[in-house]
Structures are given as structure tokens and as C-alpha cells.
Amino acid sequence: MTDLAKRSLLALAAASAVATLVGCGKKEEAAPAAPAASAPASAAAASAPAALKIAFAYVGPVGDGGWTFAHDNGRKAVEKEFGDKVQTIGVEKVPEGPDAERVMRDLVGQGYTMVFGTTFGHMESMLKVAADNPKVKFEHATGFKTAENLRTYDSRTYEGAYMAGVVAGSMTKTNVLGVVGSIPIPEVIRNINSFTLGAQSVNPKIKTKVVWVNEWYNPPKETEAATALIDGGADVLMQNTDSAAVLKTAEEKGKRAVGWDSDMSAYGPKAHLGSAVINWGPYYTKAVRDMLDGKWATGQAWWGVKEGAIDFVSVAADVPEAAKKKLDEVKAGLKDGSFVIWKGPIADNAGKPVLEKDKVADDAFLGGIKFYVKGVEGKVPGEGK
């Protein structure tokens, strides 16, 4: 481990007992000592700009095989694209709450001038740190609050969920699907609903059961929830959690499942029907290029299939050709804008219309979904309060 990596690790450990450093290869080598005043620096060295120092705060471990793994792949894409123009660091297990603020302040103190927070619960911490450090640029994944030096970005994961539904609805034998939900915020509820809509587009008999674990990453709880869904009759599972536990459980119990955020096929080869993946590389590359070119500006970005940020990959060989064809049609339509997932008529699971016939949901509508669509059983936690 280099001197700089050691110093980073020690500082971050002091900031958060659960924060650990992700190795970044040669990008984290300590800078050579400054030459003595009497030693003339070469013209090339004098004119070479310092590398842009970029930090990524991860909510989970890189080895989760899902959400954080996908973000770290995006970090690696930045290094590959910009080489010695950048120096990156990843910090694992930065929790949602006060610890996140301490970690981010420490990163700024180490000279990182671009900081990415990768979970909804980092939002308030980033706002506070951004307000105190106007020269540093902050980027927050999945949030909705911005500042002059803080912008938000997200991926249209509901597009991947819909495609997963098309496959799941084609493969179920019980007509009961199961979803392991993380935290009942609009982002996750939207994915559950989109998964159900995709399944119903090929199989109107579909019902979806949901078990919430109220955490992003907790493999034992995810396993327990997946088991409960299978015991309740679900034979195809999806998740909106960060580990591969749901797919592993399906593999062990002879059921089927889809991967989430990253290609999870290796975790359950027999159970795996395909994976709804996020490619953060395109956005991270754009954001860093904005910084290097002096064009960074606050705002909000929400990228999907059209921008190359969402895909459904590694489709199982036994998925029917009709479902594969439908999947290809959906992808093509999302890419060129000819297909819209959230288009009426759509009703909630109590029968109340939420989108009238032919009406298309805008991003404001999608960002505030707090209901289950028809076919999803139960109530959204907190609904009616």
C-alpha cells in the first residue's frame, strides 16, 4: 500500500469505523517529493497540470456484486478514459447519516475537488459539506436537492425492472412473482410497479408479492425475505437490494430470479434469467470531462437505455423466443423514444386510476410514486398515514 493510500485509510477510519479504502492501482501512488529550491524543474513538469482528484463514497462494499460494484466499474471507466489526468479513490461502506458527512469532509480535507455520493441517504450530508466548500464540486446519486456546486444524477432503473418483468412474466408457472424491497421510497416503489407492468404486458394473470427489508445491503435479511416469498408461492424473484442473496436463494430452492444493478449470472447460473444492469461509466465520464473542460454546472440528470446507462443482459437460454423478441422491441423503443412504460390507462391496486388512457407520465409524476399498481399485493409501508 502506498503512503498516500495509507494516509487516506487512516484518516477515513477515524471518520467512520466502517469506511474502507478501495485500491485504485497506480492512480493512488504518492506524488514524488517536491524538488529542493535550488533544483530547477523542467519546463514540462512545470507546465503539467495536477491530476483531478476524484472521490467516490460508496454505501456498500465493492464486493456486493450489485449496486456498489456497478459504481466502482464506473470509477474504473473514468480512469481508463482519462489516465493520468485523474486520481480516483473509492471509500466503501459510507453509511447514510452523520458518518457520511465526516467522511466527505475528510475527503475534501485531503484535496479531493470532485466528490460523488452514491446513495439517497447521502443527500443531506452532501448539502452541508457542499455549502462549506464552494470550490469543490459534488455529485449525488438518486437525490433531488441541488446547490450551486452540487448536482444530482440517477439511472432509470425502472426501465430495467420493466424488461425484467417481461422475462419473469414469460417464465412463471404460478403467476406469482416476488420482490425483495429495500427502502420504500418512490425510486424503489417505481421499480416494483414497473416490474409488474412488464410482467403483465405478456401475462395479465400476474400478481406480485413484496417483502421489505428496510436496508440496501443486508444479505441475511435478503435471504430471509426471498425465502418467505418462495414459501408464499412466488417462483420468480426480483430485488431492489444490493447483494446477490436473492438470486442465490432462488438457486438453492430451485426457483428463478433476475440479477439487479450488475450481471449476477455467476451467483446462480441455474436460477438466473437475466440481469437488469446499470452502466455508470457514460455518466461518470461525462461528469469528469465537464470538470476537466471547465464546463461543470449544477443540474439534474436521469439516464436510461437511451443514453446507454440501462440494459438487460445475459438472458437465459430457456427464455422463450417470443419473450426475447418482446425484450428486443422494448429496448429499441426505449432507445428511440417510440415506447413509453408509464402510459395510461394505469390504476393503483385499489382500482383508482392514476394515469388516464393515453396519458404519459412525466418525470415529476415518476419521481413521486407512492402507490402500488394493480397486481401488486398489500400496501406501501406508511400508506394512508
From TrEMBL:
Q: Which UniProt keywords apply?
A: Signal
Q: State the signal peptide span.
A: 1-19
Give start and end of each ABC transporter substrate-binding protein PnrA-like domain: 52-326
User: Is Signal a UniProt keyword of this protein?
Assistant: yes
Q: Entry's Pfam families?
A: Bmp
Q: What is this protein called?
A: BMP family ABC transporter substrate-binding protein
Q: Which organism is it from?
A: Pseudaquabacterium inlustre
Key word Signal present: yes
Entry's InterPro entries? ABC-Purine-Binding (IPR052910), PnrA-like (IPR003760), TAT_signal (IPR006311)
Native organism taxonomy: Bacteria, Pseudomonadati, Pseudomonadota, Betaproteobacteria, Burkholderiales
**What top-level branch of life does the organism fall under?**
Bacteria
